[in-house]
């Protein structure tokens, strides 16, 4: 056991528990060792002695040979030699321990020890027993008394391992127990056995007795075998030499994370597991492929796969991204340049088995793939029909056919200075460019997959060399494409569109070729900062410096400039929008990821030079560039990319920045018509796309990116009239969404009117023009934000000034509906706040008022129903205009206006002091009204009562004029009786119209005009009574009796009313004598 001193604080890169819970170790007494410093490989003093020949030999043997092979090779191994082999068999690199311990989830020789967690305020000190088995510099098994089960090692195993690496001289070495037993005589052996039995007699005694009986029996099986097993004697020759990995825990945790469906951070945990696989591959640890196999098995066993397939629904985006990463990892694994053929055959068999399963996800969701095979050096011009289904493993299966034996490829990755001889540089060559640098003419994503595989398996220098060769190839292709375009330019520009495009875009590709090249190149330029630990906050952005390209004839070229160049080439590639929601979404997401990486680069002179050069080439590359003058109608838009280019170029070359951004503003898929295009010319990576109606599922996102680009340009162009005008024209030409143009107008308005400085009138005018365009676009369509848009436009025009307000008032019919023009626009323009805001003098106020009145009259003529009242209000201060508006109302009253509209205007007229006009309008409203006998809660009842009250107040003549209209329109008895009662309570003519005499007497119901109203009311009660009795139920009897009581009050207003009512009751008794209970109630109340 290891006991004694406490260990020093653990290495800062390890993800160990916080200081209060950090385990400590009690090591064993010091044993034989090489002296200070040997375990970590660091000198403990200024001078260091060379290793002995014994240590050199033991180190080599311990790393490569199983201990059984050593024993077979040599009959007797001296004890000092054995000790040195055991000593060097333990892992020597702390990074290897970190790899198996830093997962953020929380030699046949053995290393036992105790690890203590110090006491805290809440928990006492805890000691754990730890045992580690190791062989050939790998930990092959671990056990710990803490009981924590996880994929990787617990903190206590890590602590003991690091202690052994850092302080090997303080850990006592023990030889295999068989070697110790060999040194004992008979008495010592008997004593050892008896003491062992005594110490553990309940556990050991039965086994000891059984073994003793077998040994004493000459015919037993145990006596047929020479020697005896020794669990401490190291690994056998046949044992796999790999790091300890708890396969059951891998399966269990992956299954658990998948069952959480992306919640509780499970997606992040699975990505961490993928990162761990990449880390293992980079360390060339065989557990990388082993762990990926375990993960894949659990992914394929996910019950949601069959559920999604049965329901015909797609998996979530997060889950889809995990499957993509899984497929990409398998491509890396099978492309291991030094894997054995039997390993690759095993992987191929397994991948095909997974791919043949019905539930295996397809490469591009529910859509069949149109992408060329990974092993094709050149995509075919015509798509093959009836292609087999492509799953997420198809590319890995195809990658199994790739090899690394090509002599040209071997020379590229093995030397920085591989070039063609100078005398061979004339003419065309498929292997070298005109400068003699090597090319690698492969299908670009496939070539980049090779780079990713080299980098992933720890061959970073080789990956860099191949990446440079690929970029030189892309450069040459770009130059040749520009040469082709020069010969076609005139013809293409005349047609204005092309059918030539790339079927397979590099951005959004399952293998992420551009991202792979960028990361490979920038990785070697990254400045490592030891202080950039993960402290729980936001990670610091990486810092890069220029590293010259090895072997490059151009001394000014660095891997950083190459990274920028290839990212620009890939982003600027003219390519067809793929089919399917997920594939299109992946294009957008990958674009944003690459742009985010580009934004981490601090642009210096070298990078700006590269940026400008590539931007110019993309603008001049015609149909081969997404920024060329002519592109395919369904080409992926360049808005996100151009926004980055614009922002990056603006401080250095504003003209080029605007040229790029303005060129990228187009979105041809939304144009109403497109030409037939040219026939296309076959060359590398180019194909003809058949005409089809596009299904762009991400169109909303693309349009918003187009809007962001335009907004960025508007912000930058503030104060520059010429540039603002150019940007405005581009917006008006290319943006087809009214809501996005409105957003741009709002953005421009906000930028133009800062709180702490005067407004920018040029940008304000741009905002106004955009707002006017929105008004025209949404005038005849439904838009839930229309009211907000109209109010904003008036606000914007107010900021611009008087002339803008006059303009929108005069041209209202092209911008607003009549209702909007009168109720919002003119009303706001004529408000007191607007007058104060503009500081208008009297002539200006009159000009604005005149325009508003003209608008009001025009709107009233066009839509009197909705605009008449607003027109009257706006024209109040001008007699002629007011009279004109009133006449428009009178003319429209008999045709298109409803009683409610007329009543509203009539009330307005009364309120403004025009009672006779109000009476006339109320009378017109009554002609449109029809109130049935049972509509005693109709909303127009108040208007009818008001109209009758108005007529009564004006005089007998007006009352006599409106009563026939009331009788004709109102058939509800209770309403008529209410009107009759009000008319009899006071004398008519109380309004006091000048020049008119009023008698001041109450009106009689026996004389006109009230006699007509009384007769109509009695008749209405009789009709209503019969109607109610037709379908009356017992629960309404009481209500009916009260109704008859009100009817009697009305009957009694007539001279012979009591006789009429009595006859009426008698008739009811006779007609409805079958309703005995009801008639009994009638007799009780009315006799």
TrEMBL record:
Residues 1-48 are annotated as: Disordered. GO terms for cellular component: Cul2-RING ubiquitin ligase complex. The keyword Kinase does not apply. One of its GO terms (molecular function) is zinc ion binding. Pfam families: ZSWIM4-8_C (PF21055). InterPro entries: ZSWIM4-8_C (IPR048370). It comes from the Eukaryota. Residues 901-1078 form the ZSWIM4-8 C-terminal domain. Keywords: Metal-binding, Zinc, Zinc-finger. This is Zinc finger, SWIM-type containing 5. It comes from Amphiprion ocellaris. The keyword Zinc-finger applies.
């Amino acid at each position: 056991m290891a006991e004694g001193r406490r260990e020093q604080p653990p290495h800062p890169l390890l993800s160990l528990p916080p200081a209060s819970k950090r385990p400590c170790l009690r090591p064993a007494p010091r044993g034989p060792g090489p002296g200070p410093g040997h375990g970590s490989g660091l000198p403990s003093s200024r001078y260091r002695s060379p290793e002995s020949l014994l240590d050199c030999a033991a180190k080599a043997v311990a790393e490569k040979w199983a201990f059984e092979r050593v024993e077979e090779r040599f009959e007797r191994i001296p004890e000092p030699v054995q000790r040195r082999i055991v000593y060097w068999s333990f892992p020597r690199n702390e990074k290897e321990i970190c790899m198996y311990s830093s997962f953020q989830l929380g030699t046949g020789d053995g290393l036992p020890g105790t690890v203590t967690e110090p006491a805290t305020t809440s928990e006492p000190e805890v000691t754990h027993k730890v045992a580690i088995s190791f062989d050939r510099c790998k930990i092959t098994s671990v056990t710990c008394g803490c009981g924590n089960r996880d994929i990787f090692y617990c903190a206590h195993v890590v602590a003991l391992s690091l202690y052994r690496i850092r302080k090997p001289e303080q850990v006592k070495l023990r030889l295999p127990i068989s070697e110790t037993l060999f040194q004992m005589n008979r008495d010592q052996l008997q004593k050892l056995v008896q003491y062992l039995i005594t110490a553990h007699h309940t556990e050991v005694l039965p086994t000891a007795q059984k073994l003793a009986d077998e040994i004493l029996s000459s015919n037993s099986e145990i006596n047929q075998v020479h020697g005896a097993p020794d669990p401490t004697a190291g690994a056998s020759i046949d044992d796999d030499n790999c790091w300890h990995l708890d396969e059951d825990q891998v399966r269990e945790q992956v299954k658990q994370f998948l069952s959480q469906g992306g919640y509780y951070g499970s997606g992040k945990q699975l990505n961490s597991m993928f990162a761990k696989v990449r880390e293992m591959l980079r360390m060339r640890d065989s557990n990388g492929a082993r762990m990926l196999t375990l993960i894949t098995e659990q992914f394929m066993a996910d019950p949601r796969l069959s559920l999604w397939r049965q329901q015909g629904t797609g998996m979530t985006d997060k889950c889809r991204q995990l499957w993509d990463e899984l497929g990409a990892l398998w491509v890396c694994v099978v492309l291991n340049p030094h894997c054995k053929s039997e390993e690759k055959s095993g992987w191929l068999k397994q991948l095909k088995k997974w791919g043949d399963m019905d539930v295996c996800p397809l490469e591009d969701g529910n859509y069949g793939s149109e992408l060329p095979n990974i092993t094709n050096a050149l995509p075919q011009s015509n798509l093959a029909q009836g292609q087999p289904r492509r799953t997420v493993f198809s590319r890995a299966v195809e990658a199994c056919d790739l090899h690394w034996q090509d002599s040209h490829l071997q020379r590229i990755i093995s030397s920085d200075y591989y070039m063609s001889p100078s005398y061979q540089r004339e003419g065309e060559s498929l292997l070298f460019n005109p400068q003699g640098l090597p090319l690698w003419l492969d299908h670009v994503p496939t070539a980049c997959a090779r780079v990713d595989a080299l980098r992933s398996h720890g061959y970073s220098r080789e990956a860099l060399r191949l990446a440079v060769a690929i970029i030189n190839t892309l450069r040459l292709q770009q130059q040749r494409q520009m040469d082709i375009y020069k010969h076609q330019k005139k013809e293409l520009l005349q047609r204005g569109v092309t059918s030539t495009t790339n079927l397979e875009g590099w951005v959004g590709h399952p293998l992420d070729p551009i991202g792979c090249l960028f990361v490979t190149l920038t990785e070697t330029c990254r400045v490592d900062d030891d202080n950039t630990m993960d402290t729980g906050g936001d990670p610091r952005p990486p810092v890069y410096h220029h590293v010259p390209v090895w072997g490059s004839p151009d001394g000014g070229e660095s891997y950083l400039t190459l990274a920028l160049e290839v990212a620009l080439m890939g982003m600027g590639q003219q390519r067809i929008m793929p089919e399917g929601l997920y594939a299109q979404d992946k294009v957008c997401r990958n674009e944003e990821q690459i742009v985010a990486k580009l934004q981490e680069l601090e642009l210096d002179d070298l990078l700006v030079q590269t940026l400008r050069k590539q931007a110019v080439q993309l603008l001049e590359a015609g149909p081969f560039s997404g920024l060329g003058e002519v592109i395919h109608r369904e080409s992926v838009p360049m808005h996100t990319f151009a926004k980055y280019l614009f922002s990056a170029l603006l401080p250095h070359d504003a003209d080029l920045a605007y040229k790029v951004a303005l060129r990228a503003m187009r979105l041809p898929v939304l144009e109403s018509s497109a030409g037939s295009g040219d026939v296309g010319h076959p060359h590398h990576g180019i194909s003809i796309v058949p005409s089809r109606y596009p299904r762009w599922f991400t169109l909303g996102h693309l349009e918003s990116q187009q809007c962001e680009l335009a907004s960025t340009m508007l912000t930058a162009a503030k104060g520059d009239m010429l540039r603002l005008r150019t940007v405005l024209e581009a917006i008006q030409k290319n943006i087809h969404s009214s809501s996005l143009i409105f957003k741009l107008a709002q953005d421009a308005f906000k930028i133009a009117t800062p709180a702490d400085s005067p407004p920018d009138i040029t940008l304000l005018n741009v905002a106004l023009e955009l707002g006017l365009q929105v008004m025209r676009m949404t005038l005849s369509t439904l838009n839930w934000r229309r009211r907000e848009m109209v109010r904003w436009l008036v606000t914007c025009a107010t900021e611009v000034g008087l002339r803008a307000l006059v303009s929108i008032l005069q041209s209202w019919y092209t911008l607003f509906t009549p209702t909007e023009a009168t109720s919002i626009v003119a009303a706001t323009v004529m408000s007191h706040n607007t007058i104060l805001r503009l500081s208008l003098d009297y002539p200006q106020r009159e000009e604005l008022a005149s325009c508003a009145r003209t608008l009001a009259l025009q709107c009233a003529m066009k839509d009197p129903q909705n605009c008449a009242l607003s027109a009257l209000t706006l024209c109040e201060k001008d007699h002629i205009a007011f009279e004109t508006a009133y006449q428009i109302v009178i003319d429209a009253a008999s045709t298109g206006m409803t009683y409610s509209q007329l009543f509203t205007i009539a009330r307005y007229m009364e309120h403004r002091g025009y009672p006779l006009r109000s009476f006339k309008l109320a009378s017109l409203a009554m002609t449109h009204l029809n109130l049935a006998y049972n509509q005693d809660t109709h909303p127009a009842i108040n208007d009818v009562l008001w109209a009758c009250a108005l007529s009564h107040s004006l005089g007998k003549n007006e009352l006599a004029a409106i009563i026939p209209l009331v009788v004709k329109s109102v058939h509800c008895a209770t309403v008529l009786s209410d009107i009759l009662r009000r008319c009899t309570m006071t004398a008519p003519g109380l309004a006091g119209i000048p020049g008119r005499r009023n008698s001041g007497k109450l009106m009689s119901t026996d004389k006109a005009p009230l006699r007509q109203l009384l007769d109509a009311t009695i008749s209405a009660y009789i009709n209503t009574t019969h109607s109610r009795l037709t379908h009356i139920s017992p629960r309404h009897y009481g209500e009916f009796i009260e109704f008859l009581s009100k009817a009697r009050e009305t009957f009694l207003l007539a001279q012979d009313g009591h006789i009429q009512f009595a006859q009426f009751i008698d008739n009811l008794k006779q007609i409805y004598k079958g309703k005995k209970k009801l008639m009994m109630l009638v007799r009780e109340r009315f006799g």
